[in-house]
């Protein structure tokens, strides 16, 4: 049976390839993000990507995120559909146009507030998903990942995830 162990030379070539690709990707970033992605970080990331574990973790996190986003979107659509049905029901049960207009305005105001509350809950759930992802990647030892809610650090992490996903689609020598 053939082993999948790679020779030190093959690992070295792979490491150089990964680092070169990461440096090229980092050069494409806007300057304010480039300075937040030093060579030490890219080198650590390249080392971390020598085996495919991190690629698998990132793909798994991405699948979970897509399922979560679809689920949250469905929740939001259910609220909107419920509102549409309430308006239709009110129209069907209120023959007087003047009363209809008053009831409609009351419903629309309530619906707007309800949708705002729903959206706030959905954003909190998405923020929690981001934290979970950061935590998972930090525990996996992926450089550049730690739990934060600072927008600039999250943006850098998003760029790093993009790098990892782009590398996962490449034929790595």
Explained architecture:
The protein is mainly α. It is 79% helix and 0% strand. It has helices at residues 8-27, 31-34, 39-48, 53-93, 97-139, 151-168. The chain is elongated and about 85 Å long. The mean pLDDT is 94.
Globular, elongated, flat, extended or rod-shaped: what is the shape? elongated
Assembly context of the chains: single chain
Q: Which H/E pattern describes the elements? A: HHHHHH
Report the end-to-end length measured between terminal Cα atoms: 22 Å
Give the beta-strand count. 0
Helical fraction equals: over 70%
How would you summarize what this structure contains?
The chain is an all-alpha fold. It is built from six helices and no strands. Helix content is 79%, strand content 0%.
How are the secondary structure elements laid out?
Layout: H1 8-27, H2 31-34, H3 39-48, H4 53-93, H5 97-139, H6 151-168
Keywords for this entry:
single chain; 173 residues; mainly alpha; 0% strand
């Amino acid at each position: 049976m053939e082993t999948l162990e790679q020779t030190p030379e093959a690992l070295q070539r792979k490491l150089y390839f990964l680092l070169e690709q990461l440096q090229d990707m980092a050069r494409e970033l806007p300057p304010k993000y480039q300075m937040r992605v030093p060579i030490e970080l890219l080198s650590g990331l390249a080392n971390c990507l020598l085996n495919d574990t991190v690629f698998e973790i990132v793909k798994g996190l991405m699948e979970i995120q897509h399922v979560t986003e679809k689920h949250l979107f469905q929740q939001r659509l259910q609220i909107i559909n419920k509102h549409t049905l309430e308006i239709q029901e009110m129209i069907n049960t209120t023959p007087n146009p003047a009363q209809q207009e008053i009831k409609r305005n009351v419903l629309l105001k309530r619906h707007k507030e309800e949708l705002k509350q729903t959206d706030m809950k959905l954003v909190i759930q998405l923020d929690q998903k981001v934290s979970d992802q950061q935590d998972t990647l930090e525990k996996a030892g992926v450089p550049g990942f730690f739990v934060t809610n600072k927008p600039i650090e999250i943006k850098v992490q998003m760029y790093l995830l993009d790098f990892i996903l782009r590398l996962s689609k490449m034929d790595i020598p």
